[in-house]
Design brief:
The chain has 149 residues and is an all-alpha fold. It is 44% helix and 0% strand. The protein is flat, with a radius of gyration of 18 Å. It starts with a helix and ends in an 8-residue tail after the last helix.
Length: 149
């Protein structure tokens, strides 16, 4: 998603790499699992995956699942943390419904198998309550931002 791509772009620039001119190709699509598999198969030189996906990839193979043998990929650097998935409600939405959905999402726990399946399908590591100001860091990454009241 856009926030993860911006975080990767900024990390590269922070280390003196200008993706637009220094890299032959920089794309930002695909699931974390497919990106990791492409790195493992040497179809690409490097890829950015979510930390929870990285952990899952190693754990899956240790439990006889997955396609990548454990501990074949390594972490080169970490991006700054950015919020990626946003669930929002329109003004005027029934507050009770909003609270129920928020409670259900924030109660998901990756250590519980039934919850982990839901989170994996959503390609999310978990959910936390957020305020608009929590996204100020992402706004700073954008070349031009306009705050909508």
């Amino acid at each position: 998603d856009l926030a993860k791509s911006l975080a990767a772009w900024r990390l590269l620039e922070k280390h003196g790499i200008r993706p637009a001119t220094d890299l032959a190709n920089f794309k930002h699509d695909g699931s974390c699992e497919s990106i990791a598999l492409n790195v493992f198969l040497k179809s690409v030189d490097a890829g950015m995956v979510c930390d929870y996906s990285f952990e899952d990839i190693n754990e899956a193979r240790e439990h006889g699942e997955g396609e990548i043998p454990p501990h074949q990929l390594r972490v080169l650097a970490r991006t700054e943390e950015v919020p990626t998935w946003v669930f929002a409600a329109l003004k005027g939405t029934d507050q009770n419904l909003v609270l129920q959905v928020a409670r259900a999402l924030t109660a998901l726990n990756r250590t519980r198998k039934e919850h982990r399946n839901v989170l994996e399908e959503a390609e999310a590591g978990g959910f936390v309550p957020a305020r608009d100001s929590d996204f100020d860091g992402v706004r700073k990454m954008l070349p031009s931002t306009r705050r909508v009241p």
